[in-house]
Design brief:
Elements (H helix, E strand, L loop, with lengths): L1 E3 L1 E6 L4 E9 L10 H10 L18 E9 L5 E9 L3 E3 L1
Parallel strand pairs: 1-6
Antiparallel strand pairs: 2-3, 3-4, 4-5
Length: about 90
């Protein structure tokens, strides 16, 4: 799917339609010492196997892509829930 780099979209902070830049949201790096990561590592340690079943093969052929919009006037960033497409190309 091809998408423009900038488009008109409603900004909740400006309370009007403004030009917004489009980018693909990318998750940041996980913290190794986060509480959930430590708990999961403790459950995996030793005998007894995996806490959750390990996924052998995937059923889906595409991933959900989350879009991040940045308002040009106030720099407010808003996210749109992911849409399931194989490839997103942002045109300049």
């Amino acid at each position: 799917m091809k998408m423009k780099k900038e488009l008109n979209k409603f900004c909740p902070k400006c309370k009007k339609f403004t030009v917004q830049a489009v980018a693909i949201y990318k998750k940041g790096k996980d913290r190794k010492m986060a509480e959930g990561a430590r708990r999961h590592a403790e459950d995996k340690k030793g005998y007894g196997g995996q806490k959750f079943p390990e996924l052998k093969r995937t059923a889906k052929t595409s991933k959900k892509i989350t879009l991040r919009y940045t308002c040009k006037s106030c720099q407010r960033k808003t996210m749109k829930n992911g849409m399931r497409i194989r490839k997103l190309e942002i045109l300049s």
